[in-house]
Amino acid sequence: MLTRRSTPPTTTLLLGLLMLAWPLLVFFLLPQGGGVFLLALGVALVSWRLPPGYKRWGLLLALIVSILALLGYVHLGVRAWPVLINAALFALFAWSLRHPPSLIERLARRQEPDLPPSGVRYTRRVTQLWCGFFLVNGSIALWTSLYADLSTWALYNGGIAYGLSGALFAGEWCVRQRVRSRIAHD
C-alpha cells in the first residue's frame, strides 16, 4: 500500500488550485516568456504529490522537461501537462482493472464495506468508463497541444475538459442513485 507524507490541508488546497488553474496560468504566462518557469512549476507540483517511493519518476520528469527546454520545445512541454495527467489517470484506472479491486470499487468500499457482487460489477464498469474518458480526453488534449492555437488549447483544457469531467461525474452519480434504489427495492 502506498503511504503519503502528511500535507497540511491549506497546502493541499493550494496545490490542487494551482493544478486546476494550469491552463489559465499557461494562457497568461506563456506568451510573456514564462515557459521555463511554468515547466519548473509543473515538475515541482507533480514531484510534491508523488509518494516517497516514486520520487525517481519526478526526477525522470524533470530530465524530460529539461531536454524539451534545451531543444526549444518549451511551449510543447508546458501544453503537454493535461496529456500527461490524463495518461497517468488512465494508467492508474486501467492498472486497477488488471489488479482488482478496481479503483472505483476501493472508493465505494470506504462507504459500503460489504459491497454486493452487483456493486462490484457496477464499480468495474464505472472504472472502465473513466478509462475511456481519460483516453478520449487525453487524445483531444494531445491534439490541442500539437495543433491548436493557445486560446483553443486553454479553452478545451481549462474549461471544456473540466465541464465534461464534471458532467460524467454527475451523470454517474445519478445512475448510481437509481441502481442503489433498484437494488434496495429488489
How would you summarize this macromolecular structure in one to three sentences?
The chain has 186 residues and is mostly helical. 81% of the residues lie in helices and 0% in strands.
What this model shows, in words?
The chain has 9 helices and no strands. With 186 residues, the chain is mainly α. The longest helix is centred in the C-terminal third of the chain and has 36 residues.
* N-to-C SSE string, H for helix and E for strand: HHHHHHHHH
Instruction: Give the fraction of residues assigned to helices.
Output: over 70%
The number of strands is 0
Average pLDDT figure: 87
Structural Rg: 19 Å
Q: Tell the overall outline.
A: elongated
Q: Would you identify the regions where 5 or more consecutive residues have pLDDT less than 50?
A: none
- How is the biggest beta sheet arranged? none
Distance between the termini: 36 Å
Structural class: mainly alpha
Supply the number of helical segments. Answer: 9
Provide the β-strand percentage band: under 5%
